[in-house]
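User: Could you check the structure of this?
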Amino acid sequence: MNADIAPMIVPAEFPELQALAWNRDVARPIPAEEAFALYERNWRFIDQKRLTAREKLLIQNLAKEFGHGVLLITR
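Assistant: Sure, the predicted C-alpha cells are below.
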C-alpha cells in the first residue's frame, strides 16, 4: 500500500465521503479500497465544489493505488 494512504479511512473526516456513507457509521473506519469504490460507484452524487483540498488529495491517492491512476466515473 502507498505510504500516502492510510489502510483505513474515516468517512467523517471527508465531507463528500461522509455523504456517500450515509447508511453506515461514518465514524467507523473503512478500508481504503472500499472508500475508493464508494467514490467511483457514486461519483454522480459528489458535489465537486464541496471537495476540500485534503479530500481531493485522498481521491487522487486512492486512484493511484487502486485505480492505476484512473478514477472511473459515469455521469
